[in-house]
Amino acid sequence: MPAEIHHADTAFQHRAGEAHGGPLAVQGLTVAYHRKPVLWNVDFHAPEGRLIAIVGPNGAGKSTLIKAVLGLVPRIGGAVQVFGEPLQRQRRLLGYVPQRSAVDWDFPTTALDVVSMGLYGRIGWLRPVRRRHREAARVFLDQVGMAEFAHRQIGQLSGGQQQRVFLARALAQEARLYLMDEPFAGVDAATEQAIVAVLRQLRGEGKTVIVVHHDLQTVAQYFEHVLILNLRRIASGPVEEVFTEENLQRAYGGRLATTELRSALGR
Predict the structure, then answer these.
(1) What pTM value is reported for the model?
(2) DSSP-based three-state secondary structure for 50
């Protein structure tokens, strides 16, 4: 880790411990690909026990933000704290649902195997998955309506079914903070409602869920808090306060049609 990032982490850890013990605190996060910034000096604090959407135009850095928080892409500046501590100490508290496009669906594994992977925090790496673990994994599959597909190879499932399996894997992790990268993309209406039901269940259990979301029309319906992003943080806060025409225009500019804007704002 570069020295300047280490110092930023250390300084931020003290401030976070004093001022913010919430699920996620990001300060000055900067990420670049091939020297081109894709996130620039982003600050964001996630409130606990909320459903939070990250929205913005294509190329705004939404997925990159999730991956940078998880340590999946390198950052060139800034700091990340999870429940007031560095990510390395708190990784067990995070659950992650990746984009479907990031998964090798030809890998020879079943839906039940995928969900069992979410139990490794309890099983321990390199230890055998026993019958009781598979039974627990089947319970999580049942929660997302996929128990009957437990022994189906994941590549043989539809897009919506695949998304449900990875949602079940996240549930199996029994995390306190969930990061989901476009879980609604390309799914049917039934799967979308199943995902919403799971999100609300997690919120009811006091969990925090941060979702990269592309459908502006459902933001106010599904979420309570929003981060509007376009390379930089445009705005963040309760949906009713910051999900406004002004902020959306600042983020999307001319790419957002008037009719789409009005529909997103319920007008």
Answers:
(1) 0.86
(2) coil
